[in-house]
Each structure stands twice: as C-alpha cells, then as structure tokens.
Amino acid sequence: SAPISSHTSSVILIIFKCLSQITFNNCDGRTRTLFQSVDKRFDVDTDGTVTLKRQVTLHEGHKVFSVHAWDSSGKKHTPILEHVVFICHMSPSNNAHISAGVLTFLKSSTGLKRAKRGWVIPPVNVPENSRGPFPMKLVQIKSDYALETRMQYSITGEGANQDPKGIFTVERLSGNLYVTQPLDREKKASYKVTLDVNNIAEKPMEIVINVIDQNDNKPVFTQNPFNGYVHEAAGKGRCMFMTVTATDADDPDTNNGIVSYAIVSQEPQFPKPNMFDINVLSGTIRVRESDMDREQWPRYTLLIVAADMEGDGLAATGTAVITITDSNDNPPQFEQTLHTVSVPENKVGAVVAKLTATDEDEVGSPTWSTKYRIISGDKGGFFNVSTGPSQLEGIITTVKPLDFEKTKQYVLSVIVENDDPFVDSLPTSTATVTVNVEDVNEPPEFNPKEKVIFKSEDSPIDTELVAYTATDPDTGKSQKIMLSVHALGWNRIRMCKVNF
Ligand SMILES: [Ca+2]
Ligand SMILES: [Ca+2]
Ligand SMILES: [Ca+2]
Ligand SMILES: [Ca+2]
C-alpha cells in the first residue's frame, strides 16, 4: 500500500484484504475472542484480524471505529480502535495502476512490439456532492510512452461530449482529468468515457468513473399509514402479519441506503406496552405477546421509524394501524341457568321454554351467534331445541306428545355453543330445565269405538241389548264416568247399568 496524495478531499479505500490485527488481553490465556465491529463495513475475526467488507470513503483520510470484545465471562468491553488507512488499489491488470493520483500505463512486458495494446483501467472514484473548487483534478493519465513521444489526450462519451456534457475534461497535454461540477450519484452513479491518446501505440480505452455515495437522502415510507389485520388469538403463534417498507435513494449496498426499522410507540399501551415486534431489516411486524383482546382493545396505532446508517442516520416516521379481528374467545352464557316449566300433555309443537344467552364476541358473526343441544334428560326424544330469530335464544318444543300417565317430569340439561368453534377449550354454559307434565282430563273411550248390535224387532222391553264398556285414560286421578244414551227417535232405550 502507498499513501495517496492529497489531491482530493477524500480517499477511497478499496482494499479487500487484511487491514490489521487487534489483540484483546484478558489475562485468561485465551487467544481467540468474540469481536464485533460497531462499523459494519469492517469485520473482526476471532483471532483479531480486521478486514474490510465493503468499500469505505474516508473523508478525513482515516477512519475511527470501535470494536466490542466479549471476555470469557460474557462481559462486553468496547475500546476504540483507530486505523489510519492508506489507499491500496488492487489493479486487475498489472499494466495500469493508480498511484499517488497518477493513472499510469506501463509498457508491455515484451516491450519490443509497438503493436496497439488494450488496457484494463481501474475505475476512477469521485465522491458525490463535492464542494470543489472546480474544476477538480481527479487523476493524471500518463502513458510511459510519453517519455519517448509527445502524447495528446482527449476524452469522449457520457459526461464528456455526450449528455450530460462537459462534466469531465482532460487537459490535452498533461493528461489531467478533471470533474467540473458536483455530481449526484442518485442521478447517475457511473460514467464511461473513452480516452483517446494521440499515438499509434494506444487504442482508445474506456475509463469508468464511479460516483461514490454520500448519505444525502433520507428513507421514505412507501405508504402512510400502513394497515394490518391480525386475529386476537394470533399471539400464541407469534404470527407475522404485515410489513412496512421505506425506500432510500442512496446506495443500497451501503448503510447510506440500507433502512432499519423500529417501533417508537404503541397506542394503547395495553395490556402490555410492547405487543408487537418489528424486524429491523425487513420491516415485518409480528405479534410478540399472547394476550390481545379485541373486546377491550380492538385497534393499535404504532409509530414507526425508518432510518439509514443502521438506525442512527437520517430518519422518517410513519404509522402502522393494526386492527384486531375477532376470534371466538368468549363462550356464550345463559342468562338464567335454572328453569321450571309446566307443559300440558299430548301436545306436539308446544313451546316448553325459551332460554336466552349472551356473547361478547363480534355481534352478528358466527363467533357470536348461538346453537343449542339437549345433552341429557330427554330419553325417548320428546323435545327439540332450536335457535330463535334473535340468534341468542334457544327454544325448546315438544316433538312427541307427552304422557302424564307415563312420565310426570323431565329434567333437561341444555348447552349453548357458537356456530364457530372456540379458539381454545372454553367452559360451556349449561341450563337445567325442569319440565312438569300437566295432566289433561282426557275423555273416556268406548272400547271398541263403534259397536253394531243386531236384535230382533220383537224383543221384549228390558231386554239387554249389549254390554258396551268405556274406560278413562286419566288413571292418575279417580274420575267418575257417566254414560248416557243419545238416540235418534229411540228414546225408549235406556242405560240400565253403569260400571266403574
Ligand atoms: Ca440515506
Ligand atoms: Ca447519495
Ligand atoms: Ca373475541
Ligand atoms: Ca363467542
């Protein structure tokens, strides 16, 4: 490596090899330590080797950065490491190199043939937004044939004689290449100019001029607010449900253009102040805590920030609005769990009871609407329960005639559930309905219902016509059966015996 001349205010470091080595003496005899460079463009291996990971622009000719070191007990130490670094250009070809601000083309190693040669020229780097003074010298182009022949240099191409014209100029005789104005990397990041050397030995060659980024753009959120939706029961899966994005016009390969995200605040701060996490690099937001409750906190507003330079640079603020969507985390409840009702026997479709319920989930949704089941007490299947028009009502009706003489009382257990299943196992509300069957005074019945009697016309008075018996189904209470005869025109038939 060689020190660069001070012809520009910045030095571009383009080394991709070991810069130096640091040691960390913790008196524990260990030779390897866990290091981490605060400046992510530098890497520190466990043996202390410092390497450069990305191109660094050194505006002051050196770079100061600190390195964390962890000792064997896990304690962190942060000494400051100061590196005075020099330019060392790894030329892709050994026949052209920049040294001390001079781009030199060497004679070919054969040296004998004056055939036209093609050069591989290292790129020239210019920081954007330079304050000048202009024209500012970038590099001096020099062919070592200049010792033998008078050379004349000229450039053509983008930034020279093509749009944008006049940005770069070359002094015809000296070969000094100048930039005439401040450059903007975000407008154009690199230029290709063609260098013509007025000498038959040199072919025209291409010089690439790269504009080195400065952090002159702040991140910009692509929308504001960002809207996200997440189920209130999503917490347990720590689910990722939305992503916020900010763009930065600066170089995306450097911290100038890499955006870091953070959550600044959360409103409301309940039930915990940090209900959500954001991925620093991707902007993906996920649920951090498991106790969201839409019924209490249906919406959160997060103030988010996007900043370059690993979160320490230029920043933009934005908003993420998170709507908590309903999950079935509230079981419906009976308003009254004990009912005693009386139902007349023999009726099909009789309304036995109406059981009302409540549910705290989202009104009108399947997490809120109810359905009912009789889980015990209906041996024989006499009852049905259906959901009433309010969706929060179970109506019990009879589907078969009840018979007081057979069963005088039913004790039904009814449970209420939602149309949607519960998110978790939740306790179900149960109602107990005691149904007393009311006795109805049923008419006595002749057995058989119709009897045809044949008697000869000349039977004597008081002849027994028939023994026709009737029974009363109301066996529960003692009842009297009265029999009478209604005969059309036969009023001389009389009932002579009544049996009980
Ligand atoms: Ca930036
Ligand atoms: Ca920039
Ligand atoms: Ca809910
Ligand atoms: Ca519910």
UniProtKB/TrEMBL annotation:
Keyword terms: Calcium, Cell adhesion, Cell membrane, Glycoprotein, Membrane, Metal-binding, Repeat, Signal
Transmembrane segments: none
SMART domains: CA, Cadherin_pro
GO terms of biological process kind: adherens junction organization; calcium-dependent cell-cell adhesion via plasma membrane cell adhesion molecules; cell migration involved in gastrulation; cell morphogenesis; cell-cell adhesion mediated by cadherin; cell-cell junction assembly; convergent extension involved in gastrulation; ectoderm development
Location of the protein in the cell: Cell membrane
GO CC terms: adherens junction; catenin complex; cytoplasm
Gene Ontology molecular function: beta-catenin binding; cadherin binding; calcium ion binding
SUPFAM superfamilies assigned to the protein according to its UniProt record, in alphabetical order: Cadherin-like
Domain Cadherin: 124-221, 222-334, 335-446
Protein known as: Cadherin-1-like
Species per Swiss-Prot/TrEMBL record: Sinocyclocheilus anshuiensis
